[in-house]
Amino acid sequence: xxxxxxxxxxxxxxxxxxxxxxxxxxxxxxxxxxxxxxxxxxxxxxxxxxxxxxxxxxxxxxxxxxxxxxxxxxxxxxxxxxxxxxxxxxxxxxxxxxxxxxxxxxxxxxxxxxxxxxxxxxxxxxxxxxxxxxxxxxxxxxxxxxxxxxxxxxxxxxxxxxxxxxxxxxxxxxxxxxxxxxxxxxxxxxxxxxxxxxxxxxxxxxxxxxxxxxxxxxxxxxxxxxxxxxxxxxxxxxxxxxxxxxxxxxxxxxxxxxxxxxxxxxxxxxxxxxxxxxxxxxxx
Length: 284
Prior knowledge:
- This protein is 42% helix and 17% strand.
- It is built from twelve helices and nine strands.
- The N and C termini lie far apart (62 Å).
């Protein structure tokens, strides 16, 4: 397999990265090995890869499982990978943000009887929407290994009281246990980005706090951070009238003069449950 990789390398390297897709191709084989090792892939497990690029990660994934689906938006790379792998790889020439995740994932798990693993060197420009798509479809994944901008990795693993703590932290951490694995320097890519990257691991969380309404929880944390420098009271005025807002503060026991970044998950869960209990009252 490794000799095959070397034979194909010259063709792959002739494809220049495009700024419109935010392409930074991973070229460090040691980093690729560490990423795939962290995924813990077994032969029977289906794997999704987003943005395979030149196939540096794909090569290693396919050494471990025969069931790989890769999404590549770049027509040039799609052609390259199609020739390289043939029908051994389920290669989809579409924007990952334009596919129906729930349909594809539910159909796949119904057929194979397994949850999926997802591995990706994510283009920076689509990181947030992909992360939220992963969060919304958390039930279908057994493990997710992502290489993201280090700033994003810091946000995913932040604690209350930190500047990096916010909506992304709370949403993704409610669905997953998230571990920061290691940093990746710019020189591991071609072309090198201007910032460091990092690899994170997301695994299903089995100790989720009970919620009366996940939708209410998402609404509350979105509003709490709508304007980070404002207090909870000022941000919540967008969805509650003054009477309800006063009742919500009293019922929750949370000081609404605090900012969202100081409120931890357990407090947000409690606040969301109290807000759900007020749902029969008149909101703005």
